[in-house]
From TrEMBL, chain A:
InterPro entries: CO_DH_flav_C, CO_DH_flav_C_dom_sf, Diverse_Substr_Oxidored, FAD-bd_PCMH, FAD-bd_PCMH-like_sf, FAD-bd_PCMH_sub1, FAD-bd_PCMH_sub2, Mopterin_DH_FAD-bd. The keyword Flavoprotein applies. Keywords: FAD, Flavoprotein, Oxidoreductase. This is FAD binding domain-containing protein. It comes from Actinomycetospora aeridis. Residues 1-173 form the FAD-binding PCMH-type domain. It comes from the Bacteria.
From TrEMBL, chain B:
The keyword Oxidoreductase applies. The lineage of its organism: Bacteria, Bacillati, Actinomycetota, Actinomycetes, Pseudonocardiales. This is Xanthine dehydrogenase family protein molybdopterin-binding subunit. Residues 25-139 form the Aldehyde oxidase/xanthine dehydrogenase a/b hammerhead domain. It comes from the Bacteria. It comes from Actinomycetospora aeridis. InterPro entries: Ald_Oxase/Xan_DH_a/b, Ald_Oxase/Xan_DH_a/b_sf, Ald_Oxase/xanthine_DH-like, AldOxase/xan_DH_MoCoBD1, AldOxase/xan_DH_MoCoBD2, AldOxase/xan_DH_Mopterin-bd_sf. Pfam families: Ald_Xan_dh_C (PF01315), MoCoBD_1 (PF02738), MoCoBD_2 (PF20256). The keyword Transit peptide does not apply. Keywords: Molybdenum, Oxidoreductase.
């Protein structure tokens, strides 16, 4: 469990980082918080020739709200995201990430670029229909949440690109629920729910290669008040809409049931009601 | 204040632990910390294949890697002649070889095939990647209760390395007479010890002497076995176990990697070789445990008397018979102690140790009994349901009581405890069973998360003497340890103990025992241990034995030297020895408050002023004593807990957990409670989280701590720990306490979930997904 050889470049700014990636000829990797990358290196599952350390790049840790959208730098640590009040859904989701040591180092941009389908922040990005700003050799581009996640641990960010910032629209109401085996584990199933006006968006982590945006048909059309019946219908629609695989932590049916349950809880959270507990059949 | 108050015994109080200053301030010295001149680092090449013939190993490219100085394979002349061969005199036991590095074929994914020596570990891993091994795969077997397609060892075509039937009375006849008969089929989950410090070793061979620093629990066994394997005089081998970060049995094994490291060091004289295992290697190739299946039948009389138990057990021994304990370690313990704290006349139990293409099974805290307590308590719960009896009343009906001891168990082990009912009574009272039963009923009527109550009563066989071996008949009997007590010329005391410590405070415990036996202050006693060149003998840390056995030796040695001191003091002061007492480092005459002479002055005479030595006295004040308890000390325990279930997610919430144990006379209350709490936490880990899973191809699916879930402080509830005390018949009255806590959680968690949902829980671990499935039924 020792990293294979690599060279190290400490980037001074975004252009320098992109240039270093380009010079690495598709063999470079951005080092931000390192919470996913370093274990992967230690297991020798990846062997980049250059690590481009962006931790000292100035200006990437800003957090501000403009026109109802949280504008966050890519280097915002999970701990900072958890502690801000500008985007309460992102704050709540960040509190579910790992442990303090992990949250102290892990970054928003890193989590989105890593694209773990069980991670919290990718689900939040989809629920809020956010976007990332990506810098590359040809300049900067904007990638929407629906296009960012391509597959498990695969994002639309190119080998020579880096995420520099994140746009996260602030919902009018929100809810978040997660089931993990232990405190701090990756979710078995996590659900982020966000209401913008009269539309509710539900994103489910842990049930597919990418965070899954629930297609609930017309059910996503809601008023200011959401009835218990509507919540139950939406949760059932979410469970119908996912197609999870079986793994060590449970069969597909279990993940489907958790999807329904976590959606119920997230929507109850969104509707401002106490979380329901389903009684045995 | 009387002199006796000033010098209250150190035992029974939570004195400050001697080891904590260094351990808590980051100044512990572990094998991993060791740096020696010219030292090089080793990385092992491990098989990615569960079962296959090795058709070629090409090391040429690895030797070209920067910083790599040597590569060893199983065929290397330094390695090839040696094999680890765990021996047992049990009839029918199939002896098999375990090569230090695989030879001819590999038998599990993770088996070491080659070793690379390099300037540092990074370069050694670079070299390991460059070793090319070709395999011709064979069909793997990962399950111990299916027919193998291709045997793991040619010597055992059915993979069974050992089988034994325990028999008492006539179980078939008694079952035929029983009022109710219950059947259960259970499996328990493979998991392992996972100490915070993985395995580690540094081997140095110079001037025909081998020094092996090893994070081992058993340095003297390691020395003896290495002498035999390496063909060295035992006196030329020194094994040093410095501070060790946890063991739990995993480090009571001499591993092929250890032997390979020493053989390589002998091939590279003057170059110390270091190997520090990482967590991936540990999960893959350190010993696993508890991968068992039980098919059980029990018969009860109408009044609840347990009449008969008939059992079949399969224990997955993994790819090799673990050295030196053999593949019998788990099955023999399972068959010997299955019946636990219950009286039983008619018993038949066939146990098997079965080879598979998985990492070898070895000793792990509780050895087999977390599984057998689960099995026995499942029979009790099923029996209670079939009889319509209260499950706790049924247990009470059958417990071995004080009037029954010494009680000869059906496996012929002799139980000296009889404190089971006292533990159960106190646990039930502390837990407030009536209150929890009322809450359970309230929830059933009014609604609410289902609540279940689980119980486990158990006996921990501790401090095994020469006549109490529950294990395989090996070439050595582990009944005794030695201790040397030396008074220094300044009157302070140095103890050379055979103990090893992996964090459980033996340094403190031994100092307390010697201080009291000798009559000096705790602060005046220093303890040396973990070095075969300094202390005479100790079998090490396993079977909850050291407080009993090494503690007994420490007490006897302390008493012996106290006799020397008093005799010399009596002669010097011309006082009758029978009227002298040594306490607080001062010699007192009976009835006099003022001491007549200090220990320091007696010591000065003994070492430095031979002109003052009375006629017939040799210089020096030192004595060594062995102790063997001959039998063992059974330690009773009972745990009871209330759990609630979220039926929507299957999540289990632990509402209350009570444990009451009989540790006999307690030397250090905080250490004892720490042992109990830690072992319950490990037990909960095994019951609810930890599971080493192999796929059908023999790949370990849970290869990192991302998938192999260990409980953290967040998962372990507040534990309420109580004690009863029936001192054992040994010099200090202690009963071992290292393992008991692990024995009940499987039974408690499975029993509580079954109680909450009205189902039977047959398979472990009890995960949320499994609970959810039970709810769906």
């Amino acid at each position: 469990m020792k990293c294979p050889p690599f060279s190290y470049h400490r980037a001074t700014d975004v252009a320098d980082a992109v240039a270093a990636l380009q010079a690495a000829d598709d063999e470079g990797k951005i080092l931000a918080g390192g919470q996913s990358l370093v274990p992967v290196l230690a297991l020798r599952l990846a062997r980049p020739s250059v690590l481009v350390d962006v931790n000292r790049v100035p200006g990437l840790d800003s957090l501000e709200r403009r026109d109802g959208v949280l504008q966050a730098g890519a280097l915002v640590r999970h701990l900072a995201l958890a502690g801000q009040a500008l985007h309460p859904l992102a704050a709540e989701a960040a509190r579910w990430i790992g442990h303090t040591a992990i949250r102290s180092r892990g970054t928003l941009g890193g989590s989105l670029a890593h694209a773990d389908p069980s991670a919290e922040l990718p689900a939040v990005l989809r629920a809020c229909d956010g976007a990332v700003h990506v810098a590359g050799p040809a300049g900067s581009r904007r990638v929407g949440a629906d296009d960012l996640f391509v597959g498990a641990l695969q994002s639309a960010v190119g080998e020579n690109e880096m995420i520099t910032g994140v746009e996260l629209p602030v919902p009018d109401a929100w809810g978040f629920a997660e089931f993990a085996r232990r405190h701090g584990d990756f979710a078995v199933v996590a659900v982020a729910a966000a209401r913008f006006g009269d539309r509710v968006r539900v994103a489910v982590g842990g049930v597919a290669g990418v965070p899954h945006l629930v297609d609930a048909g017309d059910l996503d059309h809601v008023g200011d008040e959401i009835s218990d019946d509507h919540v139950a219908l939406l949760a059932a629609a979410a469970a119908d809409d996912v197609d999870p695989a079986s793994d060590l932590h449970g069969c597909a049916g279990y993940r489907r049931a958790l999807t329904e349950q976590m959606t119920l809880r997230a929507l109850a959270d969104l509707a401002g009601r106490p979380q329901p507990v389903r009684e045995p059949a | 204040m009387t002199p006796d108050d000033q010098h209250a015994p150190a035992s029974g109080t939570s004195v400050r632990r001697k080891e904590d200053v260094r351990l808590l301030t980051g100044r512990g010295r572990f094998v991993s910390d060791l740096a020696l001149p010219r030292m090089r680092h080793v990385a092992f090449v491990r098989s990615p294949v569960a079962h296959g013939r090795i058709t070629g190993v090409d090391v040429a490219e690895a030797l070209e890697v920067d910083g790599v100085s040597a590569v060893f394979t199983g065929e290397h002349p330094a390695i090839a002649p040696v094999a680890l061969r765990a021996q047992s005199a049990l009839p029918g036991y199939v002896e098999t070889d375990q090569p230090p590095l695989a030879r001819g074929k590999v038998r599990f994914a993770g088996e070491a095939v080659a070793a690379v020596v390099a300037a540092d570990r990074y370069l050694a891993e670079d070299g390991a990647e460059a070793v090319v091994v070709d395999y011709d795969p064979l069909p793997p077997t990962v399950c111990a209760w299916v027919e193998p397609e291709h045997p793991v060892h040619d010597e055992a075509p059915d993979n069974v390395l050992l089988s034994r039937t325990f028999r008492a009375g006539d179980a078939d006849a008694a079952l035929a007479e029983a009022h109710v008969v219950v059947d259960r089929e259970l499996t328990t989950n493979r998991h392992g010890g996972n100490p915070i410090e993985c395995r580690a070793g540094v081997a140095r061979y110079e001037d025909r002497r081998l020094t092996f620093w090893s994070g081992t629990q058993v340095p003297y066994i390691v020395r003896t076995q290495l002498a035999e394997l390496l063909d060295l005089p035992e006196g030329n081998i020194r094994v040093i176990a410095p501070d060790v970060g946890g063991g739990f049995g995993v480090k009571a094994v001499l591993y092929p990697e250890d032997v390979a490291l020493c053989l390589m060091a002998m091939a590279m004289p003057g170059v110390p070789l270091k190997w520090v295992e990482d967590r991936v290697e540990h999960l893959l190739a350190a010993t696993h445990a508890r991968d068992h299946r039980y098919v059980l039948r029990a018969g009860f009389a109408a009044d609840g008397e347990l009449l008969a138990v008939s059992a079949d057990a399969w224990c997955n021994a993994g790819a090799y018979s673990v050295y030196p304990w053999t593949a019998g370690i788990e099955p023999l313990m399972a068959g010997g102690l299955l019946t636990g704290p219950y009286k039983l006349a008619h018993y038949t139990c066939t146990v098997r140790g079965v080879a598979t293409n998985t990492s070898p099974s070895g000793p792990y805290r509780g050895v087999a009994r977390p599984s057998t307590v689960f099995a026995m308590e499942a029979l009790m719960d099923s029996g209670a349901r079939a009889l319509g009896m209260d499950p706790i009343a049924l247990r009470r009906r059958n417990l071995i009581l004080p009037a029954d001891v010494p009680y000869r168990m059906p496996s012929r082990l002799v139980d000296d405890s009889g404190a089971y009912e006292a533990c159960l009574d106190k646990a039930v009272a502390t837990f407030d069973l009536d209150r929890w039963r009322a809450e359970q009923t309230r929830r059933r009527v009014e609604g609410g998360r289902p609540l279940g109550i689980g119980v486990g009563v158990y006996n921990e066989l501790t401090g095994l003497g020469r006549a109490a071996s529950a294990g395989p008949r090996m070439a050595f009997r582990t009944g005794h340890d030695a201790c040397t007590v030396r008074i220094n010329p300044d009157g302070a005391v140095t103890v050379f103990s055979g103990v090893t410590s992996q964090g459980q405070g033996l340094e403190t415990t031994m100092a307390q025992v010697v201080a009291d036996a000798l009559g000096v202050d705790y602060d005046d006693v220093e303890v040396r241990y973990g070095d075969t060149d300094s202390s005479l003998w100790g079998f090490g840390a396993f079977s909850s034995r050291q407080a009993v056995i090494s503690g007994g030796a420490a007490h006897l040695a302390g008493e012996h030297v106290r006799g020397q001191v008093l005799a010399l003091a009596a002669a010097l002061k011309e006082a009758p020895v029978e009227e002298l007492d040594l306490r607080g480092g001062q010699i007192h005459m009976a009835g006099q408050e003022k001491p007549i002479i200090s220990l320091a002055e007696v010591a000065r005479v003994a070492y430095l002023q031979s002109d003052r030595l009375p006629e017939g006295f040799e210089p020096g004040l030192e004595g060594t004593r062995f102790y063997d308890p001959i039998r063992g000390a059974f330690a009773a325990g009972a745990q009871i807990a209330a759990l609630e279930i979220d039926p929507a997610t299957g999540e289990i919430g632990i509402l209350d957990w009570v444990c009451v144990e009989d540790a006999g006379r307690i030397v250090h209350p905080v250490i004892v409670d720490g042992q109990i709490a830690g072992s319950i936490a490990q037990g909960i880990g095994g019951a609810m989280y930890e599971h080493l899973v192999y796929d059908d191809a023999g790949n370990l699916s849970t290869g990192t701590l991302l998938d192999y879930l260990m409980p953290t402080a967040g998962e372990i509830p507040e534990l309420r720990i109580g004690h009863v005390s029936t001192p054992a018949a040994n010099p200090t009255g202690v009963r071992g306490v290292g393992e008991g806590g692990t024995l009940a959680p499987n039974a408690v968690v499975a029993g509580a979930v079954a109680d909450a949902l009205g189902v039977e829980v047959d398979d472990l671990p009890v995960t949320p997904a499994r609970v959810w499935e039970l709810v769906q039924r």
